[in-house]
Amino acid sequence: MPDTPDPKNFSGPLKPxxxxxxVEVRDPPEAALHMSAEEADLxxxxxxxxxxxxRRQRDARRKPKA
Length: 66
Hints:
Elements: E1 17-19, E2 22-24, H1 37-62
Antiparallel strand pairs: 1-2
């Protein structure tokens, strides 16, 4: 992997969201993702946060209504 990735393939961190009990990542590039180590860390943290949101949404829908 070259030290400087091709700018047109440099995507930056992902922006996932928890939606309707699932994690959604909009418009991921068709080519390989290229990001700095810090952006990869941020993407991982965002994925974990989105997974937590999705899990809470899913669990809230499963709770029986009192």
